[in-house]
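Table 4 source record.
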Amino acid sequence: GAGGIDPFRSYSEMFTGETTNVTNPELIWGTTQNVTDQQDVVFPLKLGGNSSISIPQRIVDAYRMADGRDIHNASAEYPYEDRPYDQTCVTTADKQLSKNYRLPGGTYKAYDNREPRFYASIGFSGALWQMESTTSEEMRNQIVEYYNGANAGKNQAGVTNIYNLTGYTCRKYVHPRDARTGSNARTVTKTFPIIRYAEILLNYAEALNELHGGPDPEGEAYEAMRRVRERAGLPALPDGLDYTAFKERVIQERKVELAFEGHRFWDLRRWRLAESVL
């Protein structure tokens, strides 16, 4: 990434507990209350959780490709393939995307070539759950699937009415060492961000766009957006955006950068989009 940043770790480790609240310069206000305990709702069935948090497809589709392009306008270098799933529409080999993230071979290609925040935030069918803290080997490094009859899906033996409905869950607050079952299983203490600096930058960019009826002439709105996107491994916004185009970019960036942090509902109300989106 730019400036030697590992965008996956720079983003992910704020939420997983790898960076503590006293060493995270981005954290302005946060809480450790109940964050770890609530992991039961995202951990897969039979791996210590009930897998009851389900993320809709429209949120998954909001994440960009690795070069920052929309999935509907993907490049030849980072293609997006979402044709019907079969054994010809999967990756052929493991990809080590970061020190703490491996995309397994055999992953559906719609989940390949995506921006780092996608992998830091979304648990999808075929994703690897490390659960490194448990000494029970059968509970470590599990490929989790959510389709009907799969190891974390509907219609498992002994599981009737609690399961993932969409095939996606939130991985944003899961550390590679976190485990909910097995011998010596434990979870890392986490801090939930109530206010962090990326939100301040996005607030500032949006406010400048509203104040000037477009990005300010001094370029501070662009600069605020650049800092958020650069850390995420994405290029800066194109020049020459008008008020509407820039606001659309702010809406997109907030949807992804601040996902699962409690902002989306209030953002949609503020933009008067709640009725159409929800």
